[in-house]
Batch of 4 targets.
Target 1
Amino acid sequence: MARTTSRLRLSDIPVPPEIPQQHAGSYRLLAKKRIQLQGVITDTSQVLSEQRQSLGGDLTDCAGPQIIEGVQLSLLQIANGERQQVTAAIATLRGETAERVYGECIACGKKIPKARLNAVPYASTCVKCQTDAEKGQQL
């Protein structure tokens, strides 16, 4: 079930005309990430379906498959959440969201450093605000 998205070159991904030229690289990173996440979601869903079918849909008698299913469901949730963030960032790049500017922190309004956007192209907060938010969740 290996996907060929790892071989997908960023330069092969077309950039829609509504994307500002300075964000073409970010758009390509986001588009590739969305393709990869869709592959993970599709593959994991298929594995779950096949596993349930092979066990007759009843996982209650087997602790091992229950644990595996739990992990796979967690992976699906994470991938779906990340895909939603990627899709939101693409919509922002396209100018579809009036309340947000791509590359601007939604918490403090400062510009998100390019290095952060290269690492996490769907980031909506700067490192400081993200760290502060995560510290607040730990309390």
Note: Residues 18-100 form one domain.
Target 2
Amino acid sequence: MTIMKMKNLVINSTNKTPKIDFNAEIGIIEIKGVSIAEDANKFYSPLIDWAERYVKTTGLFLTTIKIKIIYFNTSTSDYLINFLKTFKKLGDKVSIEWYYETEDDDMKETGTHFENILEMKFHYIEVDEI
């Protein structure tokens, strides 16, 4: 059986979209910044496509997803849930780290909401600044 090598995906942040750093080689996937894209489908669909290919080709190693979003809009929420749902197939081989800034109870609460919707375990990491 041949395992296809995945290309990493890196997209720089803008004032409306987060930084994307998906490293297939070491299994670390990070979304960081603000996500208020006017066309969330255009931005997130390629990320979901990448995630689907990744899940099909990843080996037995652990994948860590780091969500470091400061703020996002409603349309981003739907795509973020679908993105994370893609990794559910990895079972205990995926770790989701939900970062939130000190005193940003709303973002932590959003993480617990996502955790309940997805029925996946999140690890919450409080930081001074994202």
Note: The longest helix spans residues 40-57.
Target 3
Amino acid sequence: MPEQTDDGATKVVSGVAKLASSAIGGVALPGAVYAAAAAFGTASTGTAISTLSGAAAVSATTALVGFGSVATGGVVLGGLAVAGAWMCRKPGGKLGGKVLSAARRVQAEKA
């Protein structure tokens, strides 16, 4: 196995990997919560959210995530995006670690 050096290229690859994993985490966590709420939730009218479309579906799903308030739902989804990005950017994070190790492996193969 080639010796790993901490040169500029490795730092760039590491930074890009952290950025990519943060972006994935920032989208995946709130996206999963939103999708689950839309698929299994019901609007305040009793209608299944999965049968709604457009603004009605967005408002009902956001309100469900926000425990009845659309404004709170927006804050919750925004917080989940930040939390997901933070968890994946952390060096100990599973996703961030996997992306980073794959990037380092590619870098090592090129050397």
Note: The chain has a mean pLDDT of 78.
Target 4
Amino acid sequence: MPEPLSSEPWVTRYGLRLLWITGGLIAIAALFSIAQRMTTVHHLSQALATATAENATVAATHAALQTQIVLATQGANLDEHVRDATGMIRPGDEVLAPVPVGTLPSRATPPSPSPELQPQQPWRVWWRLFFGPLP
């Protein structure tokens, strides 16, 4: 014979199982949420480390550029001192060089003109470069 239907309510009959299943589902959802938040924290900490390294690089570049600016602005006053100490000249300056007495060339003899070079055919130039004089 089939068992008669129980007169006890379904909550009493399935209550403990239902409680365990609901608790398990809530625990799984909480674990997924925690894992997602840990992944987000990991990505954000990596982004923070990258941004910190880039910030340090930019700060070092900024400090180097500030140093170059200071040296460049101080160099404007240094220019005259360096030119006087080393004898360097600027374009447009007149250069006066002392010459010992008796070493001046005679102005009576004009310089001899250089003979004009005859244009050569390009193959002859290459022949001389690779093989020597023409036969």
Note: DSSP finds two helices and no strands in the chain.
